[in-house]
Specification:
By secondary structure, this protein is mainly α. It has one domain. The chain has 7 helices and no strands. The longest helix is centred in the last third of the chain and has 24 residues. It is globular. It starts with a helix and ends in a 5-residue tail after the last helix.
Length: 160
């Protein structure tokens, strides 16, 4: 049984109807164009393209009410980059640069990884989209996310 089937069964159990979400192709294309315009990796080893649909879907279902186009693009890209970073760690890709993400971010140094560099760039723009308390929480949460990924990596083979 697949995830879609399990979700449909759950909705049926609670008396709701499962409706398959359609991807907003126009928004997807716009987000991809924005990523390319910014020089974010859209092809090759560090490509965020496979994660863009998730960024668009997350935005569309959670933040569609936001009026500002720049913030919409920021959310789509931020979500895609987070999922890409998590997926790269879980798939065993080269994660050496992740160990230096905090240090390089705090010292405004290049990240050494195009995906992490893109995430760094977006974090530095957070204050353009949110008031100080919110932008502070987004930035610290992202740094905590990177730390959690490193803990996951460093403890995966530990005995409990």
């Amino acid at each position: 049984m697949g995830i879609r089937h399990a979700v449909a069964n759950f909705y049926q159990l609670v008396g709701s109807k499962y409706v398959e979400a359609k991807l907003d192709e126009a928004l997807y294309n716009e987000c991809c164009q924005e990523a390319m315009k910014r020089g974010f990796p859209m092809d090759g080893e560090y490509s965020i393209r496979p994660y863009m649909a998730i960024g668009v879907a997350t935005f569309w279902h959670c933040y569609a009410y936001l009026p500002d186009r720049a913030t919409k693009m920021w959310i789509c890209l931020y979500t895609a980059l987070h999922i890409c970073t998590d997926d790269r760690v879980n798939r065993g890709h080269n994660t050496g640069n992740l160990y230096y993400f905090h240090e390089r971010f705090l010292n405004c140094q290049p990240q050494g990884d195009p995906g992490l560099q893109a995430l760094d760039t977006l974090l530095r723009e957070t204050h353009h989209h949110y008031p100080p308390p919110v932008s502070n929480l987004i930035i610290t949460s992202t740094l905590d996310f990177a730390s959690a990924l490193l803990l996951e990596l460093d403890t995966k083979d530990m005995q409990v």
